[in-house]
């Protein structure tokens, strides 16, 4: 979408239709905060977004800090996906600790806007829990395997 004659409004319209943004993975990584470890690779990030999309169609996601925190405390299982560009960090810095205490897999993705979009929301979302479900079990298992193989933060 790099056409010099195209206006800004027109560019945004084209981006909306194609479902892609101009920001590359590298651009997004530049904006992540200090605690975003383990960070998902570009490939895993795409897989996680797809899995979130499938899960949200089946109503099998928990969205937002309060909701995810509540269900982690209740002992619900799933993959926790956190946005790496959330500021201030204090909003959700306790979630990885809760996940480690209950041995839940978690990973950071670079963008809260993309995470919210993949969940079918117009609002950015800083944390989502994907619950297992038979309709997308294969995608879930693949993500689970890759997220658990990520190096643990120090």
Description:
The chain contains 7 helices and 4 strands; from the N terminus they run αααβαβαβαβα. With about 150 residues, it is of the alpha+beta class. It has a single domain, classed as 2-Layer Sandwich (60s Ribosomal Protein L30, Chain: A), CATH 3.30.1330. Strands 1-4-2-3 form a 4-stranded mixed sheet, sandwiched between helices. Helix 5 links the parallel strand 2 and strand 3. Helix 3 packs antiparallel against helix 7. It is globular, with a radius of gyration of 16 Å. About 30% of the residues are buried.
Topology:
Blueprint: H1 8-18, H2 25-29, H3 42-57, E1 61-63, H4 65-73, E2 79-83, H5 95-101, E3 106-109, H6 112-118, E4 127-130, H7 137-149
Parallel strand pairs: 2-3
Antiparallel strand pairs: 1-4, 2-4
Helix pairs in contact: 3-7
Protein name: H/ACA ribonucleoprotein complex subunit 2
Domain Ribosomal protein eL8/eL30/eS12/Gadd45: 47-139
Family: Belongs to the eukaryotic ribosomal protein eL8 family.
Question: Which descriptors would you attach to this protein?
Answer:
about 150 residues, alpha+beta, about 45% helix
- Alpha-beta content class: alpha+beta
Q: Let me know the largest β-sheet.
A: 4 strands, mixed
> What would CATH call the class?
Alpha Beta
Annotated CATH topology: 60s Ribosomal Protein L30, Chain: A
Question: How many strand segments?
Answer: 4
Beta-strand share of residues: 5-15%
pLDDT averaged over residues:
82
Instruction: Note the total helix count.
Output: 7
Q: Classify the helix fraction into a percent range.
A: 40-55%
The largest beta-sheet arranges its strands as 1-4-2-3
Order of helices and strands, N to C? HHHEHEHEHEH
Overall number of structural domains: 1
CATH homologous superfamily designation: Ribosomal protein L30/S12
Outline: globular
Q: Compute the CA-based radius of gyration.
A: 16 Å
Uncertain segments? 10-21
CATH architecture: 2-Layer Sandwich
- How far do the termini sit from each other? 40 Å
């Amino acid at each position: 979408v790099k056409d010099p004659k195209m206006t800004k409004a027109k560019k945004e319209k084209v981006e909306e239709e194609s479902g892609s943004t101009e920001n590359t993975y590298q651009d997004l990584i530049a904006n992540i905060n200090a605690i975003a470890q383990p960070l998902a690779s570009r490939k895993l990030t795409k897989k996680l977004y797809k899995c979130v999309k499938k899960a949200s169609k089946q109503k099998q996601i928990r969205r937002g800090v309060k909701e995810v925190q509540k269900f982690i405390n209740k002992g619900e299982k799933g993959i926790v996906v956190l946005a790496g560009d959330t500021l201030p960090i204090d909003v959700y810095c306790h979630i990885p600790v809760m996940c480690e205490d209950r041995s839940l897999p978690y990973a950071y993705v670079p963008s809260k806007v993309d995470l919210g979009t993949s969940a079918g929301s117009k609002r950015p979302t800083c944390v989502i829990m994907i619950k297992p479900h038979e309709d997308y079990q294969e995608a879930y298992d693949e993500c689970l395997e890759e997220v658990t193989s990520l190096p643990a933060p120090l």
